[in-house]
Amino acid sequence: MKPQVNIGLLGLGTVGSGVYQVLQENGEELAKRTGLPIRIKSIAVRDLDKERLVEVPSDLLTTDAVKVVNDPDIDIVVEVMGGIEGTKDLLLTAFRNGKSVVTANKDLIAEHGEELTLAAVRSGCDFLYEASVGGGIPIIRPLRKDLAGNRIHEVMGIVNGTTNFILTRMSQSGMAFEDALKEAQALGYAEANPASDVEGWDAGRKIAIVASLAFNSRVNFPDVDVEGITAITARDIEYAKEMGYAIKLIGCAKETENGKISAQVYPALVPLEHPLASVNGAYNAIFVRGNAIGEAMFLGLGAGQLPTASAVVGDIVEAVRNFHAGTRGKFLVDCYHKKEVQSALDNHHRFYLRLEVADQAGVLGAIAGKIGQHGVSIQTMFQKWADNKTAEIVVITHQVREGALRNALNELGDMEHVRAIKQTLRVVD
Ligand code: NAP
Ligand code: HSE
Asked: Which ligand 1 atom is at minimum distance from the Cα of 18?
């Protein structure tokens, strides 16, 4: 038995430096918990001269990530550098070399999760990715283990810290979208390409990962219907507040009555009395509904250096324990079903619509009549302002099939008296 476990760290940015710091600070305790001292043997970065968030002996750093995954002394590869194709090749090499892998890389798992899982099983190594969803919140392990006795019906919640931070700043301090995004980037919450956050792709990838585990059927990122927050305006936030709602980016994966999976990410009006409405800043919250547990909610910081490092180091601890006990790679492939992913058009929601229409008698009735022809029934409708030419109206619909709503909006857009459909958002019940 080796006297210690050697880690090869790929990346020393926000998350990597957090992992380094936690392993240094909690090292003695972790050695007792796992039975073996954990040593970082080498760290791959792009730029050896860059200033780091942590002080690291320079002889640990290398720009050769391939050398790290081929180093026979390294037992566990911890990938916190991001990227998809090149990174996948590095992890496949690590598995071929008999190394367990811990990663925070949701982009990679949401696209190549199946290939990587099969490679891990084939090589008898662990493949752990708790940090890929919800930052510091435990959700992958609960779905795989603690909640495995359930038939899961739904996983839904706030799964992106950057967008929740932006929406909170816009709502509570009236901050502009761009300024709030800059602050989120400075705090280390955002992805290298922040479009990933604000366009909803990051949340979509996380929903693909949790849906695959919850329903034991592979859901890849392209299967998820995704809408981001870039079209949300201060006016929508204000109107939502007036009506008793907060606007949140929601990710949702459900098993439908006909045995399909529905997977969506969208900004939505959430009633202020709903627990998700008060989840603010970089916090994430994920609800899991199962036939035995009922409902469970997981809450915590969803992004940032140390919360994410907490999840990565938790996986390292599991990998080291398995290494020590000789139980590495003793897991089964999670996705043994092949369930169809339902088109978002078949999902049912209530909707918030904001329209600019001609300020004339009979227009509201004509709008109600037109959308009514598509089975869209109005719950509330009121006028926000008018200037003799144009009036702005806000409509909340009853639950309707999304496809029917889209057809109604297409026809509404062609009506002479409708100047613009300014906003369409879902409303969480
Ligand atoms: P980051 O701050 O940009 O750090 C990336 C690190 O990887 C940097 O140290 C960079 O080197 C290194 N790197 C990139 N490409 C490399 C290459 N080809 N070879 C060697 N080193 C390379 O990113 P991060 O925020 O830590 O995120 C890392 C991963 O964790 C991503 O997959 C992200 O999605 C995921 N994640 C992040 C968070 C978060 O809150 N930030 C939370 C959960 C998951 P240099 O420093 O020399 O440029
Ligand atoms: N950019 C991601 C977020 C990091 O803001 O949630 C955590 O996965």
From this structure: 26
